[in-house]
Amino acid sequence: MADSGAARRGAHLVHRAATLSVALAALCGCASREPPPPALELAGPTMGTSYRVTLPGAPRDDGAIGAAVRQTLDRVDALMSTYRADSEVSRLNRHESSEPLSISAETHAVLAAAQEVSSATRGAFDITVGPLVDAWGFGPREASAPPSEETVRGLMERTGWQKLALDAQGPAVRKTVPQLRIDLSAIAKGYAVDLVAEALERLGYGHYLVEVGGEVRAAGVRADGSLWRVGVERPDSMGRSVLRILHLSDTAVATSGNYRNFREADGQRFGHVLDPRTGRPTANRVVSATVLDPSAMRADALATALLVLGEGDGMALAEREDLAVLLLVEGAGESLREFKSAKFRAKMEDESP
Ligand code: FAD
């Protein structure tokens, strides 16, 4: 997830650099006689963070590629942002009724994928955490201080992924609790990556790297024939360095972390990933979760869920669901322990930088 720069807020906020960064390692300049032709790079702001598309072999850019990428990202923002009052999700959140509401096929697809991950993670991933996200100050609205226990208890009654009923026919969605509010921040950027990848494939490109806010999808190879290299950041709230480089092709990778986007109050630090079972920020020792999956959307959601589950339940999920997972866990002192699932070990040839 790229860092869209720290933004300072009130006394409670120590700093809120946007999101954990999965540093895109400098694409290795593997020794080759002829330097490969420059890749086409497209980049810009989106969804409160940034995007980057890399197409090796300097394809002719008659503007069609840039337009396809921009339209795709703008469409996801217009449908799924909780930072825009005119988005479809904001309209759904204002719909305080248990009557079904028609939604777009795209939003239905994301809600259905979210429900699948909620079910597989036994509720550790839950898009209905919206009211809690706002109460803890990690949404579009300021929060002057952490919510009281009583406030959290009250908001918990208005959350719960099973209180959202989907109807593929409409497509439509129904809230069994009218005050339910959803937050797609942990899945929609991954969805945007998948949609951009599909747009590039439709334009005939089979070799590319797409990144939105640190969610990445790599296809094919780089111009010199080597695999794409994506760095997993060392979890350090004060600096940036690459801990591990992953060599990728034809897969997506997402990392969630709670060491960049946090608040402090009364000497306590609260990360932006919430445990839907307690209504509070996660309190385990996992500081970063990386997931490889063919879908960036699924990798995005699973990475967030793994932060909630912690290393024991997280690795049990990874083995149960045959997921390629790397967890970074705080040990004694400044030490960091790595937990890799069997699939991650089998899939990943990785090297320290
Ligand atoms: P991730 O780990 O991927 O997700 C954590 C986020 O998911 C939390 O911030 C919270 O919102 C939510 N969450 C927390 N716990 C859970 C849980 N257990 N289950 C499910 N979800 C949970 N930010 C801006 O500042 N300005 C914008 O204009 C803006 N527009 C956006 C538009 C869209 C369409 C989306 C999807 C996001 C937008 N954002 C915006 C938010 C920003 O892009 C990031 O999504 C946010 O900072 C968290 O991303 P992350 O990858 O760091 O965290």
Descriptive overview:
This protein is 28% helix and 26% strand. The protein has 353 residues and is of the alpha+beta class. Helix 1 packs antiparallel against helix 6, helix 3 (105-120) packs parallel to helix 7 (296-320) and helix 6 (188-202) crosses helix 7. The chain has helices at residues 64-80, 88-94, 105-120, 130-135, 149-156, 188-202, 296-320, 342-347; strands at 15-16, 40-46, 49-55, 101-102, 164-167, 172-175, 208-212, 215-219, 228-233, 242-248, 251-257, 261-265, 268-271, 274-275, 280-281, 286-293, 324-330, 336-340, 350-351. The chain has a domain at 80-175: ApbE-like superfamily (T-fold, Orthogonal Bundle). The chain is built from eight helices and 19 strands.
Structural class from helices and strands? alpha+beta
Counted by DSSP, the helix tally is: 8
Main β-sheet description: 8 strands, antiparallel
CATH superfamily of one domain: ApbE-like superfamily
- Rg to the nearest angstrom? 20 Å
Q: Record the strand order, biggest sheet.
A: 2-3-7-8-11-16-17-18
Task: Please tell me the CATH architecture of one domain by its name.
Answer: Orthogonal Bundle
Mean pLDDT: 88
